[in-house]
Design brief:
177 residues, membrane, 39% helix, two-stranded antiparallel ribbon, four-stranded mixed β-sheet, alpha+beta, globular, binds 2-acetamido-2-deoxy-beta-D-glucopyranose
């Protein structure tokens, strides 16, 4: 689990501001361009995250289009060729990655796979038993407020899904909730 300094929060704010400017001057992107399918995906992602959060008593996340854009740009530019589970530079975001053989995986599947790690997490000693559960702890991290995700099909035909979180979770030595 990585630790972060307060500086990265500042960096993330600047990055989000820069992305906002790109949006402002991009004639091709507008909120009205959201298709019904995209709205469904967003609802599935939020439902998956927020039911897991509700179960442990932490407030719900909101969808952040700028985080989704960041995920899409990183996935398309850096991972489309190799489809590897390699993290982005982050810029102070938390990040969950999912890889699946074939193209039929949805964001809902990815979130369900991450939430299933709950079985490995022990709150009493704040540790994952035998297997990684850091995707789950990011999902239920109390101070995280926003999420944005993207799915791409890699050149190989496999699925790569990334969700970005802000503020990030998984601070070493801290409990998610
Ligand atoms: C944490 O607690 C669980 C459940 O009692 C136990 O199985 C696990 O070994 C503990 N992990 C550590 C690192 O102490």
């Amino acid at each position: 689990m990585p630790s972060h300094s307060p500086l990265v929060f500042h960096a993330a704010n600047i990055y989000l501001a820069a992305l906002s400017l790109i949006f402002l001057f991009s004639p091709t992107i507008s909120s009205t361009a959201l298709t019904k399918a995209k709205t469904e995906t967003i609802n599935q992602v939020l439902d998956g995250h927020n039911s897991a959060r509700k179960a442990v008593g932490v407030p719900p996340l909101q969808w952040e289009p700028l985080l989704a854009t960041y995920a899409r740009v990183y996935s398309s530019n850096e991972r489309r060729k190799d489809c590897k589970l390699v993290h982005s530079p982050g810029y102070g975001f938390g990040e969950n990655l999912f890889w699946g053989k074939g193209s039929r995986w949805t964001a809902e599947d990815a979130v369900a796979a991450w939430v299933a790690e709950r079985q490995w997490y022990h709150h009493a000693n704040n540790s994952c038993n035998a297997k990684d559960c850091s995707h789950y702890t990011q999902i239920v991290w109390r101070t995280t407020q926003r999420v944005g995700c993207s799915k791409i099909i890699c050149d190989s035909g496999e699925t790569f899904i990334a969700c970005e979180y802000y503020p990030p979770g998984n601070y070493f030595g801290q409990r998610p909730y």
